[in-house]
Amino acid sequence: MTARVEQRVRHRRRIGGRRAAIGALSALALTGAAIATTATLGSAGAATAWPTAKGSKAVSSTIPVSGTFDGKLTKFFGSGALGTSGQDEDQGPIFELADGAVLKNVIIGAPAADGVHCLGSCTLQNVWWLDVGEDAATFKGTSPSAVYKVYGGGARGADDKVLQFNGAGKLVVGKFHVEDFGKLVRSCGNCKKQFKRTVIIDDVDVTAPGKAIVGVNSNFGDTASLRNIRIHGDTKKKIKTCVRFQGNSTGKEPTELGTGPDGTTCRFTASDVTYD
Fold this sequence. Notes:
Strand 20 and strand 21 (255-259) form a beta hairpin. The strands form three sheets. Strands 4, 6, 8, 10, 12, 13, 15, 17, 19, 22 and 23 form an eleven-stranded parallel β-sheet that branches. The protein is mainly beta. It is globular, with a radius of gyration of 17 Å. It has a single domain (3-14, 27-275), classed as Single-stranded right-handed beta-helix, Pectin lyase-like (Pectate Lyase C-like). The longest helix has 11 residues, at 3-13. Helices cover 4% and strands 51% of the residues.
């Protein structure tokens, strides 16, 4: 897909006035190497680094990953059955990771379909979503010992969820950038099979507009710990930090119970979240 077509796709999914201005940034040190990047500037002027793709590849059927897949900063985008940028449920992903797989140094462009699916424990390292489709990544492991790691990278342009936590276990998000989004992390509120889920978010930059950093189900024993969260461009503090829900397994819309730290489900203090 050409840059011009991709831009038109993004435009159709944007609300006017939500785009960030684009500037220049020399380099971002990730995984021990310097990576050439561009930078978008949020309304508060906080720079967020986005990588420059080193080639692109259309994906018409899901790419299975076991072991380690290093994309070397290639941009992958959907075509054919995966060539959508909508919010339809049950879309296929660009990548599907087996238990224990690692996906790194990948850029997912538009159309993005349903991004990345993890069928068990997985690591997403320096993965970037330029324009989130249905979700950026979905975690589906059923073992309570499953661990999903999202380290580095970033996502923007998510109409709803960025990281969808449907399975069991622990999701750890660190050194991540998110902007123009609905929810950064959401523990599934109405999946047919529910689990107790643990979410840890540490050292993350959040740029408005956005709705919530994390949503969890207190009735299923979910917990969310927030540390070193920096929110940019949200002077009126409209972005909710941690939202507690009454989840269900019937498919009904979950009920929101409250927001903010409570020491039990939402584990953080006011000093863990800063604004500029």
